Amino acid sequence: MQAVLALCYFCETHGPRVLMTTQSISEKLRQDYCLPTTSKGLSTFVSAKSFRTRLTEESRCVACTSFIDGAGVITDDIEVGISYITTQVALNDRVYNLVKYSCLHSLSCEVTTTPKDNIPKLSPIKSRAVQIPESNKKWESPWEEANAEAKDGVILFGDDEHGYTLSYTFRLHDYKARGFSRFLSLILVSIDKLFITSNFHFFVSTMSSTIRFLQMESNMVFDREQNDPSNEVLKQAAASRASLLPAHFLRTYVTKLELDTSRSLAVITGRADIFTQLHMFMVCILRTQTRLCKEYLLEGVPTQDMLVMKERELKTDDGASAYDISCSRCLDCFETLRKIAHMLENLPKINGQSVLEIVLTQLVTGGQIVLKCRNEALSKRFLLALSSLLPLGCVRILYSEEYRHVFVSNLFGCPQETELSPDAIDIVVLLLDILFDRIHSRQPMAEERETCSLSSGSCISSPMSTSPKDDNVDESLAKHLIEILPPTKSFDFEDYVFTLIAYPKYTAPKYGTPTIVNRYKQLILDDDLSFRVLASVVGNTREQWLNKAKLIYQLGRQKEGIDLKKVLQIMKCTKEDGTVLLFFQAGLSYTYKQQVMGVIKKERGLDK
After folding, report:
1. DSSP at 132
2. Which residue intervals define the domain UDENN FLCN/SMCR8-type in the entry (predicted)?
3. Do the beta carbons of residue 128 and residue 136 sit within 8 Å?
4. Are 263 and 381 found together in one domain?
5. Domain membership flag for residue 421
6. Do β-strands 181-190 and 163-173 pair in parallel, antiparallel, or remain unpaired?
7. Residue 162 lies in a domain
8. Cβ-contact 185, 168 below 8 angstroms
9. Which of 99, 244, 315, 374 is the most core-located residue (most Cβ within 10 A)?
10. Three state DSSP letters for 224-272
């Protein structure tokens, strides 16, 4: 709810009442409130329990009733997908309470602070005097001035709990009302105070136009009823003795005789479609302001990941959706990352270097990591967890039965039977295979195995024993069972074991480890860090090194020759860190690269 417009009326019998409320909702939610439109152009609303309760909990008369039986008027804005609904009471409970609170205050305790000399007189009314034969003097009308000078006008009130209200109180002339006038208010209710104050003049001017329209219509009816010959009978009968009566007695006497507080707004204005007309005015106010006022959420300069996501248009070249890659930033992926990091760290070291360091070094330097696993879902979880350590522009995830080179996918998953290309060198190949002792504890019941074997077209003569004596299970049979027997519980990483099949030759101790690898390893293996903190710190580290890559990219393309080795020394980066920065430049967006090159070319043109 950005804003709600409502027309309020002070009923002589029931007190402050909301005549009609106009609010905007999404077209997707329209079916939750409305039934198909009737032939009369009105829409009947679904009799939801809360909505019907609000309609019946307040006693109303004809004067304080606009739409009956839950009817209302709807206007659809097809361009933006918004429906404007006008009903007697608001559809939403929260909006209903806010409007009811504002209605009570606008017609009772909240009084405008506008000076008497500056009270906006929208439509001055000339009082109609009774023509007495003996004298041409008109009745004095101090009651109009006393009633209009205090309460009519614009006022802004509210708080954070009850919302903020812009109220415009006014009066309509009614020949059969007490004091010959009806007290109403047009209110705008919103939770956002800034929305009202920043558009104050627009709302006041448009609400004034609506009020002028109502006053013009009521004045015409008021004058017509005063000139009605049927109303002159009482006036002529009392005219001969008017000079003998106290001041204003005749006016009070006539008013009491002709008093009718049950006249509706349609009778006062002489328009049967007055509420439909008001609906059009209110929709115009809300719709115009929605189009004029556009809100922008400024989050600072967009990150490289945001630009890459926008450039990929939610779909990457290798078939993996950008949405899936962005999921690597969720907390579940960091939980998976910590789990597999501990598993890799516990594997035997290679040349004094842990398998986790080998995998992380291969990852941040742009090498390819191949995971062989029959479970495609588990394989993608592993690859997505690793991708959380890289900028989105450096991530190319793929799972396929055929091998793809590193320029196609640097995080590649495949089944165990997939043969790698002979020219695929300097890659890390991991095998993720299930532990056979887990098979025994995950076997289905005998009936399930029989059903599964029949459905798969195979026959198993005897069930597999789960006793400790039967440890010599044929490996091929076990693998076959993995494929045909559905486990009662899905396997997780605890049920698998990693095996390092191949690794690059640069893992010898003479080669150093990049600084970012040591930082990542320290963070991931720290169990004291919560996953939310881990995600924040890893993201900060990733952005820090991406900014270094941006600096190297800018300086490396300048006209003057710049010694990048000295730049690396200034940034306290080693030779191995330079390889990381070179790979991270692939994570820079195309927009950023074009902007940098455009500035450099412009500077070169000025030098010439």
Report:
1. B
2. 87-589
3. no
4. no
5. yes
6. antiparallel
7. yes
8. yes
9. 99
10. HHHCCHHHHHHHHHHHCCHHHCCCCHHHHHHHHHHCCCCCCHHHHHCCC
Domain count, the chain: 3
Tokens, residue 590 = 């195309």
The partner residues of 156 in beta bridges, in order of sequence, read 166
Helix axes 575-584, 355-364, angle to 10 degrees: 50
CA distance 246 to 248: 6
3-state secondary structure of 124: coil
Q: Is residue 445 in a domain?
A: yes
Q: Are residues 561 and 479 in the same domain?
A: no
CA triplet 446, 450, 456: central angle to 5 degrees? 140
Note whether 141 and 33 are same-domain residues: yes
Which tens digit of pLDDT belongs to each residue from 54-103?
555 677 787 778 877 667 788 888 877 888 888 888 888 888 889 988 88
Domain co-membership, 102 together with 141: yes
**CA nearest neighbour of 427 among 501, 517, 513, 502:** 502
34 and 143 inside one domain: yes
Tell me the β-bridge partners of 158: 164
Q: Assess whether 507 and 539 both reside in one domain.
A: no
Transcribe 436-455 into DSSP letters: HHHHHHT---HHHHHHHHHH
Do the bridges between strand 71-77 and strand 82-87 make them parallel or antiparallel, or are there none, so unpaired?
A: antiparallel
Measure the CA–CA gap between 224 and 490, rounded to whole angstroms.
83
Q: For residue 320, count other CB atoms closer than 10 A to its CB.
A: 22
For residues 571 and 581, give the distance between their C-alpha atoms in angstroms, rounded to a whole number. Answer: 11
Consecutive H or E run containing 84? strand 82-87
pTM of the complete model beyond 0.85: no
* C-alpha distances out from residue 339 to 344, 382, 448, Å: 9, 10, 32
Average pLDDT, rounded, for the chain: 75
Q: Single out the residue in 469, 492, 516 at which a domain terminates.
A: 516
| pLDDT band at residue 472 under the 50/70/90 scheme | very low
Element (H, E) at 44: strand 43-45
Res 332: pLDDT: 82
Q: Are 263 and 322 in a shared domain?
A: no
Could you give the CA distance from residue 444 to residue 488 in angstroms, rounded to a whole number? 6
Bridge partner list, 499: 431
* CB within 8 Å of 495: residues ≥ 6 apart: 434, 435, 438, 442
Host H or E run for residue 147: helix 142-151
Same domain, 288 and 423: no
Closest CA to 3 of 200, 153, 298: 200
CATH code: domain of residue 434: 3.40.50.12430
Closest listed residue to residue 23, CA positions, set 64, 66, 82, 68:
82
Distance of CA 188 to the CA centre of its chain: 23
C-alpha 596/C-alpha 304 separation (Å) is 14
Please say which residue of 259, 292, 325 terminates a domain: 292
State the angle between helix axes of 590-607 and 304-312 in degrees (0 to 180), rounded to the nearest 10: 110
Domain with 47, as residue range(s), is 4-292
Two tokens, residue 504: 């690059």
Q: CA–CA separation, 165 vs 179, rounded Å?
A: 28
Nearest Cα neighbor of 167 from 192, 195, 190 is: 190
